[in-house]
Each structure stands twice: as structure tokens, then as C-alpha cells.
């Protein structure tokens, strides 16, 4: 069968399973197997696909019909223009998280110091830490995660992007590994689990069936991880240091209150591309611009 014949077959299969983006998914998976850009499929649609590749493509389509995310099928996800390896051991980086990264980058550029030390709590694939290191070569980062498998993926992603010399990866729960370092931080950033227990019940199969639950479940109200970080973060932050979180779009007001109660000032909420609350930032007192 030719490329276009395989893609037409795949689109029909995916439509039957009510996959939302059948054409895109089919083309991405075929391009992945052929190791070509998607445009090549349109330029040379009549090229024959060898039997082995055809069989592998059919297998990927069957897995996609079962709602397995495309990123896990290709083991690749783009974030901030960089390519990251992802597996079911890590959360798939979302475009909304780029708002958080861009906020940190803006803060770094406006900061007078150049030897800044930042911590990324719950690094997962390393998308946040690695993106920050890539765009700010003088930045030093400590990245933590409670999953050894996630840390291994993050380390490899850092090497792939040639920023591994800027990032120290530590195993442990939340902020605990950083406390043992005895260092004061210029910033803490985190995209912690923030899905409420009630919301967990209604997540689509593509999420709840494949992505790591411990990277999703934020407890009864989705704010449990924030409370843990806020409880001890101020002790680790220098005066004027930045604390930035990603959050669920309904959590802005509650998280802002939590941060202000913890002693942070100039707390403000940033919206995502859809105009919903997505990122919140605040500063330890005595901050100087």
C-alpha cells in the first residue's frame, strides 16, 4: 500500500473510535515511522510503504484507537520549540505550561543578577527546567522528582538539549531534597498535581488511562501540593525571590489567598491562551526590582 492509502485507512479506523483529530494523528504517526516531516507525506503520497513499516503503523493506529496519546506512541513531545522524550512515566508537557516558563524567563531577563539559582519542583520530563536552561545559559537549576524513572527521562532530555551541565537532578518528594542542599534560592517554580479528586473521576481515558496519576491528583480540592510547598518554600528563598506555579483554571483566587497568607507579596495571576487563569506568581518580601 502507498502512503496515502495507509493514511486513508488509518483515518477511517480512528474516526470509528471517535478520535478527535484522525487526520493529524495518522499523519504524525506515519511521518514518525518513516522519519520524515509531515509535508513529505503530501509531497510524495504515492510512495509505497514497506511491509514492516505498514505493520508497525497498523499497530500504532490500534493503540491510538484505544485512546493512547500520540506523544506516548511516538515518545516525543514539542515544548517551547524543543523536542522532549516522553513515556507514561511522565506527564505530557502542555502548551499552557509555556505561560509559566515565559513568565520565569521575563523575570530572569529583568533581574540584575546573573548567577541565579532556581528550583523546579516535580520536574517530570524536565520540560520546564530544560527550557529555562536552554533560553538562559547562565541559569543554574535544581530539579526534583519523586519518580526515579521520570528523573532518568529528564536527565536524558537535558543531555539531548545540551543543558545537563546547568541542571542538578535530585530524587525526593517535593521540596525535601532541596532542604538537604542547604542553599538559598532565587526562585522556585512548579507545575504540581492540581486535579481535584472529583475532577479525576471525569478525566478522559487518554489522560487517566495513560498519564501518571501521581502527576495529576492534587487531593480533595487540588491544592494539597501547593500547601506542602508553601509551608517550607519561604525558608529556602532569598529575600525578594520569586515563587511561580501553574494551576487549574478554577484555582486562581484560592491559590492567590494561600500565597498571600504564606507571606508572599505582589501576587498576581496570569492567563493562558484561552484567557483562563493558569499561572500565579508572587515574591518573598524585601524584593528589589
Automatic annotation (TrEMBL):
<keyword id="KW-0808">Transferase</keyword>
<comment type="similarity">
    <text>Belongs to the protein N5-glutamine methyltransferase family. PrmC subfamily.</text>
</comment>
<dbReference type="GO" id="GO:0102559">
    <property type="term" value="F:peptide chain release factor N(5)-glutamine methyltransferase activity"/>
</dbReference>
<dbReference type="GO" id="GO:0032259">
    <property type="term" value="P:methylation"/>
</dbReference>
<dbReference type="InterPro" id="IPR040758">
    <property type="entry name" value="PrmC_N"/>
</dbReference>
<comment type="function">
    <text>Methylates the class 1 translation termination release factors RF1/PrfA and RF2/PrfB on the glutamine residue of the universally conserved GGQ motif.</text>
</comment>
<dbReference type="GO" id="GO:0003676">
    <property type="term" value="F:nucleic acid binding"/>
</dbReference>
<dbReference type="InterPro" id="IPR002052">
    <property type="entry name" value="DNA_methylase_N6_adenine_CS"/>
</dbReference>
<feature type="domain" description="Methyltransferase small">
    <location>
        <begin position="110"/>
        <end position="200"/>
    </location>
</feature>
<dbReference type="InterPro" id="IPR050320">
    <property type="entry name" value="N5-glutamine_MTase"/>
</dbReference>
<dbReference type="Pfam" id="PF05175">
    <property type="entry name" value="MTS"/>
</dbReference>
<dbReference type="InterPro" id="IPR019874">
    <property type="entry name" value="RF_methyltr_PrmC"/>
</dbReference>
<dbReference type="Pfam" id="PF17827">
    <property type="entry name" value="PrmC_N"/>
</dbReference>
<keyword id="KW-0949">S-adenosyl-L-methionine</keyword>
<feature type="binding site">
    <location>
        <begin position="191"/>
        <end position="194"/>
    </location>
    <ligand>
        <name>substrate</name>
    </ligand>
</feature>
<feature type="domain" description="Release factor glutamine methyltransferase N-terminal">
    <location>
        <begin position="5"/>
        <end position="74"/>
    </location>
</feature>
<feature type="binding site">
    <location>
        <position position="191"/>
    </location>
    <ligand>
        <name>S-adenosyl-L-methionine</name>
    </ligand>
</feature>
<dbReference type="InterPro" id="IPR007848">
    <property type="entry name" value="Small_mtfrase_dom"/>
</dbReference>
<feature type="binding site">
    <location>
        <position position="145"/>
    </location>
    <ligand>
        <name>S-adenosyl-L-methionine</name>
    </ligand>
</feature>
<feature type="binding site">
    <location>
        <begin position="122"/>
        <end position="126"/>
    </location>
    <ligand>
        <name>S-adenosyl-L-methionine</name>
    </ligand>
</feature>
<dbReference type="InterPro" id="IPR029063">
    <property type="entry name" value="SAM-dependent_MTases_sf"/>
</dbReference>
<dbReference type="InterPro" id="IPR004556">
    <property type="entry name" value="HemK-like"/>
</dbReference>
<protein>
    <recommendedName>
        <fullName>Release factor glutamine methyltransferase</fullName>
        <ecNumber>2.1.1.297</ecNumber>
    </recommendedName>
</protein>
<keyword id="KW-0489">Methyltransferase</keyword>
Amino acid at each position: 500500500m502507498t502512503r496515502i492509502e495507509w493514511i486513508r485507512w488509518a483515518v477511517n479506523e480512528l474516526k470509528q473510535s471517535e478520535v478527535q483529530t484522525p487526520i493529524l494523528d495518522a499523519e504524525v504517526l506515519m511521518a514518525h515511522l518513516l522519519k520524515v516531516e509531515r509535508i513529505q507525506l503530501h509531497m510524495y503520497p504515492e510512495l509505497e510503504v514497506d511491509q514492516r513499516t505498514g505493520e508497525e503503523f497498523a499497530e500504532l493506529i490500534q493503540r491510538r484507537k484505544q485512546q493512547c496519546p500520540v506523544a506516548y506512541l511516538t515518545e516525543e513531545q514539542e515544548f517551547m520549540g524543543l523536542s522532549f522524550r516522553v513515556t507514561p512515566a511522565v506527564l505530557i508537557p502542555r502548551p499552557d505550561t509555556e505561560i509559566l516558563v515565559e513568565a520565569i524567563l521575563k523575570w530572569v531577563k529583568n533581574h540584575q543578577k546573573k548567577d541565579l539559582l532556581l528550583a523546579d519542583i516535580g520536574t517530570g520530563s524536565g520540560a520546564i527546567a530544560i527550557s529555562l536552561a536552554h533560553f538562559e545559559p547562565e541559569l543554574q537549576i535544581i530539579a526534583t522528582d519523586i519518580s526515579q524513572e521520570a528523573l532518568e527521562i529528564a536527565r536524558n532530555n537535558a543531555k539531548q538539549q545540551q543543558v545537563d551541565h546547568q541542571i542538578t537532578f535530585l530524587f525526593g518528594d517535593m521540596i525535601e531534597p532541596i532542604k538537604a542542599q542547604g542553599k538559598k534560592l532565587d526562585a522556585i517554580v512548579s507545575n504540581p498535581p492540581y486535579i481535584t479528586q472529583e475532577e479525576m473521576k471525569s478525566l478522559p481515558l487518554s489522560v487517566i488511562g495513560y498519564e501518571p496519576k501521581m502527576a495529576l491528583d492534587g487531593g480533595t480540592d487540588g491544592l494539597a501540593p501547593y500547601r506542602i510547598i508553601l509551608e517550607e518554600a519561604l525558608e529556602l528563598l532569598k529575600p525578594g525571590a520569586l515563587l511561580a506555579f501553574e494551576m487549574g483554571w478554577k484555582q486562581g483566587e484560592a491559590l492567590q489567598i494561600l500565597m498571600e497568607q504564606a507571606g508572599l507579596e505582589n501576587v498576581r495571576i496570569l492567563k493562558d491562551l484561552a484567557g483562563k487563569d493558569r499561572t500565579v506568581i508572587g515574591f518573598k518580601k524585601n524584593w528589589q526590582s
